[in-house]
Design goal:
heterodimer, A: mainly alpha, MetI-like fold, 0% strand, elongated, B: alpha/beta, Rossmann fold, 5-stranded parallel beta sheet, 3-stranded antiparallel beta sheet, 7 helices, 8 strands, 28% helix, globular, binds adenosine-5'-diphosphate, binds magnesium ion
């Protein structure tokens, strides 16, 4: 893996040397230099903080709403019937349409929160739905015969079934929330965000900065994702109690 | 407690009629055994009594009580320990006695703390048995509960069930007539196919006590 990355960095360096046009393809070294000067400015951390908070908030809201709505759908078939077309609609609407709509409807400040929420929601919803549905029917029957209570049933039967589904849909949703969130910022240009920085890098043709910001987004999205997945794994472990039902 | 009475119960799965006008009485507080070859419909009778299936015709009375059972499959939560699987069905106050019961059936402390998915077949069976016996209820249904246990463990388990049953009605499903005998059970034979059980008026509503019919 490390070797493969090194290989592609070399390819990149050679390509940029061959092209010899910083404007077209900056060299890895130029990008690194740009990154170093960027992190020394206050506006860098401000933009990172703003975007992280807003996109992260959108993700968490989408996660919570997705899990909740899917649980209701599994429990009540009426909710299931009602939500099905809505989720399909949200899932198949192009991000761009949502961004334009959101600009009309909501403050551009929380544009990326809204967009990241909408991208995450249907993914988490269908993952949770499938996970809860995958709960072992024979164990549920056992729980019914023995009058096992709601929370114990959740922990002992539903949670273990849900876990792998929820984790994989979270991983999917995490990438989507960052990509769509930053795209929304580039279009809506809320003040002091990564999207605004990206846009400025574009209009002033600061290619090394553009690349550096891209790198920052990838790293942020990766770190945020690690944190969320780790948190979920720990929560699941604590809830299921590794054995004890209470 | 009331007797559990199945009266002319008919049950079909799709095209296949498993029980046709099946009639039987399981006496309250006593042990009744259902014997018969595989596929005869014993598990189906258990599921009807437990309220997990509805009869297509006929009635079941006296079964609307709290039940516990050993399913034909173990039905343990794979990620929970042996002990936690039993605790799952018990109120908090009764948890302490779970360890004791497991030890009685030959579980070491370590084995009682193993997740069910890592237990041997015989161990799983015994956990399911402890779960059924320790749980509350007026009716205990054991569907081939002693299957797959070696001689020593089987004896321990039978003793444990006899003692742990208390005054509960016990419905014992088995292939083995001797097992029914050790429980002093009233045995009835469930014939394979769609045969009408009972037939004559005089036997209807009674448990067949003729264990010769049970040698399949
Ligand atoms: N859920 C079901 N769907 C279809 N067929 C079933 C189902 N449950 C049982 N059967 C059929 O009913 C018959 C009786 O099954 P069962 O009651 O399990 O017999 P036994 O416990 O005596 O071996 C079998 O032929 C079985 O295949
Ligand atoms: Mg059976």
């Amino acid at each position: 893996m490390a070797l493969a990355i090194l290989f592609w960095l070399l390819v990149w360096q050679v390509a940029s040397l061959v092209i010899g046009q910083e404007l077209f393809l900056p060299s890895p070294l130029a990008v690194l230099r740009a990154l170093f000067s960027m992190v020394q400015e206050q506006v860098f951390w401000l933009s990172v903080g703003n975007s992280l908070l807003r996109i992260g908030l959108g993700f968490l809201l989408g996660l919570a709403a997705g899990v909740l709505l899917a649980s209701f759908s599994v429990a009540f078939s009426l909710v299931d019937t009602l939500l099905r077309p809505l989720m399909l609609l949200v899932r198949s609407t192009p991000v761009a349409s949502f961004i334009i709509l959101a600009l009309v409807w909501v403050n551009s400040r929380y544009l990326s929160t809204f967009i990241s929420f909408l991208m995450v929601l249907p993914v988490i919803y269908s993952g949770t739905y499938a996970g809860l549905r995958a709960a072992d029917k024979s164990l549920l029957e056992m729980a019914a015969v023995f009058h096992v209570g709601f929370w114990r049933r959740m922990r002992a039967i539903y949670l273990p079934a849900l876990r792998p589904f929820l984790l994989s849909s979270c991983e999917l949703a995490l990438g989507m929330s960052w990509k769509s969130g930053v795209a929304a910022e580039v279009i809506g240009l809320p003040v002091g965000t990564i999207g605004e920085r990206l846009y400025q890098a574009k209009i002033y043709l600061m290619m090394p900065e553009l690349f550096a910001w891209t790198l920052v987004i990838i790293l942020l999205s990766g770190l945020f994702g690690k944190l969320i997945i780790q948190g979920l794994k720990m929560a699941a472990k604590n809830l299921s109690g590794e054995g004890a039902p209470e | 407690m009331r007797d559990i009475v199945l009266n002319e119960v008919t049950k079909a799965y799709g095209e296949q009629t498993v029980l046709r006008e099946f009639t039987a009485r399981f006496k309250a507080g006593e042990v009744s055994a259902l014997l018969g070859p595989s596929g005869a419909g014993k598990t189906t009778i258990a599921r009807l009594v437990l309220g997990l299936e509805r009869p297509d015709a006929g009635t079941i009375s006296g079964a609307d009580v709290r039940c516990s059972c050993v399913f034909q499959e173990d039905r343990l939560c794979p990620g929970l320990t042996a002990e936690a699987n039993v605790q799952l069905v018990l109120p908090h106050a009764q948890w302490p006695r779970v360890a004791e019961a497991l030890r009685e059936l030959g579980f070491t402390k370590e084995d009682a703390q193993k997740q069910a998915q890592y237990l041997s077949g015989g161990q799983k069976r015994r956990v399911a048995l402890v779960r059924a016996v320790e749980a509350q209820g007026e009716l205990l249904v054991l569907d081939e509960a002693f299957k797959g246990l070696d001689e020593e463990n089987r004896e321990k388990a039978v003793e444990y069930v006899k003692r742990g049953r208390g005054g509960r009605t016990l419905l014992l499903i088995t292939h083995d007539p001797r097992e029914a005998e050790t429980f002093g059970a009233k045995s009835m034979y469930v014939p394979p196919g769609e045969k009408v059980w009972g037939g004559g008026e005089e036997t209807r509503g009674e448990v067949d006590n003729n264990s010769e019919r049970s040698s399949s």
